[in-house]
Amino acid sequence: MDRILINDDILKYAQMYEQAFRGYQLDVPTKLRNIKVKLDTYNVDNHLSQDVLNEYKAYVEEIANDYDNAADKTKNLLILQPQHFQDYIDKYEGVAFQHVELDKELVYHKQVGGKRPGPKKKKFWELIVDAMHYEKIVRPIMIPIIEAMGIRTCVYCNMQYALTIDHSKGLYELDHRFPKSKYPYLCTTFYNLQPSCPTCNHGKNTATADFGLYTTDSNELHPFHLLAKPHLYLRKRRFNPQYINIHLIPSDVHNLRNCQLAKTHEKDFMIDSTYAAVKDVAEETIWRCKAYDDTYKNLFIKNFPELYSKDALHRFVFGTYSDDKNVHCRPLTKLIRDIEKDMGVIIEPV
Questions:
Q1: What Å distances lie between residue 85 and 66, 156, 273, CA to CA?
Q2: What would the pLDDT profile of 89-137 be if each residue is shown by its tens digit?
Q3: DSSP letter, residue 153
Q4: Smallest Cα–Cα separation from 226: which of 348, 346, 331, 313?
Q5: C-alpha separations of 131 from 8, 20, 27, 142 in Å
Q6: Domain residues of the chain, as ranges?
Q7: Cα 294 from chain centroid?
């Protein structure tokens, strides 16, 4: 729910991803161009007119060219930065490819003999994703990078870990902000892969998320605020979590763009409804903010001087990290931090 600034560290992680991917020596451009051959070979079954067939072939040829982008290496598809996404989207949805249907099922292979003779069909976008080797290669490369970046929670809700269970193993779940069924050329793009929980990922399905994890603008790092109205809860003295209502609002109510983003984000991921299940956490955080004063801090320092630091005390008291940049490390950190801000709680180092 908070963004990550594309700084030198993030650029290095993106380079690590690119180097690891290219280390497999897959020759993705050639794999993509092989689709053109298959389209020619089996067009008798696909029934594409020559003009339309040429558009399909030009589509994969363009992706093959963009994969490495000889003119500007920083704009190749593996590490294409978010500010350039729209340029590529405009190109691939432009008039040059107006007859390309990504969901169109195409015959791409025929088995002659064997147990399963006859045609095989795949959607056009699936052929592209297969050629770009998303399914087999990306997750093993991304897992250690995500861990090194300290991202453990869903970037959309911050309520759950970004994990899914597959064959009795916990694995990081990756969502394509721009879904591969609509934007197959972005299926292996580092900045299009956003760690998410299964609930947000599957609920989003093939929609495009308005929220992008990465930004080059430091003013866009915190677009949302989880409002629990702790002072109202305390003033009315109705000490029961059922009277706490948590709402997603823009961090800057005067920013019209953020207002619309918050409205869309809440609708897409049902943030208000989801956080209704953790009102008890909000209530406990409110009471911690009231209870842990200088007296408690001094006792902690006195009894654990070797442990004391701003972060250690904060983790002990609130169960979260003290720095906003670590919001992705632990579930519900965003909610707890926003309540702290609303109550003016700051634990300073000594």
A1: 12, 20, 31
A2: 999 999 999 999 999 999 887 665 555 556 788 999 999 999 999 988 9
A3: B
A4: 331
A5: 31, 17, 9, 19
A6: 4-131, 151-215, 222-343
A7: 39
